[in-house]
Amino acid sequence: MKQVERIREFGGWLERWQHESETCRCTMTFSVYLPPQAATQKLPVVYWLSGLTCTDDNVRVKAGAQRYCTELGLILVMPDTSPRGEGVPDLPERYDLGQGAGFYVDATQPPWATHYHMYDYVTRELPALVEGSFPVIPGRRAISGHSMGGHGALVCALKNPGMYASVSAFAPICNPVLSPWGQGCFGAYLGDDRQAWEAYDATCLVRAGAPLPPALIDQGTADEFLAEQLFPQHLQDACAARGIPLTLRMQDGYDHSYHFIASFIGEHLAFHARAMAG
Predict the structure, then answer these.
(1) What mean pLDDT comes out for the span 216-235?
(2) Exposure winner among 166, 241, 248, 258, fewest CB in 10 A?
(3) Is 256 a catalytic residue?
(4) Domain coordinates of the chain in residue numbers?
(5) Is 0.90 topped by the overall pTM?
(6) CA-to-CA dists, residue 71 to 37, 49, 57, 66, angstroms
(7) Which of 56, 201, 218, 223 is the catalytic position?
């Protein structure tokens, strides 16, 4: 790995790293916040998955999470949202497909299949790299995210029982097989097989019997994407049908932005700290 940035924050260090990814076959970038406790002990880790158009930079600049990580003794890992670089396929005319829109799936269709393996990257390669390079407690991890990244966090937790102590999300795409964003990306990355789509859909996975760790979702009632893209009620209904606890909080007047995330990120991090305290 190559360290490309190191910034002092709240007694700890915000670092940015690059490495050559075997999974995505390109140079990948991620940021990590190491609170002051990390200088003397190993700590639990929270992975944050960002949404469409984002890089690792959005959350570390806009969410205000680092202050809470210092208070709670959590390491925060913030990967990019897609492979990038020369030779990596992209559609610059579209914000919702290609670079910045990896959707946390393993693509099977050309031209995406060579590089777009964000699911494997987030659940396998990156955790191994983090646990081998930073003072984290092995296996003590949680996952969270926003919008496309909230979808990714839920899917990673559902498809990997026992891997995460808890999962949370802000305005997640809960039923992407019905969402224009999900349909556009799934069709491109995974082809026409609807079963392949359902393997990366949180609502479909719950209906199919996947277990869910302790889960917290916040959704703004003024979110401009709520009605046509997100479908949190579908996931809530699927969990209720199986008797799976799910905390879905409809937050009055909040939109889809990082203003919303910054308002509740401390509660999400505290939720994960409690789940990983055992």
Answers:
(1) 98
(2) 241
(3) yes
(4) 2-275
(5) yes
(6) 10, 21, 21, 9
(7) 223
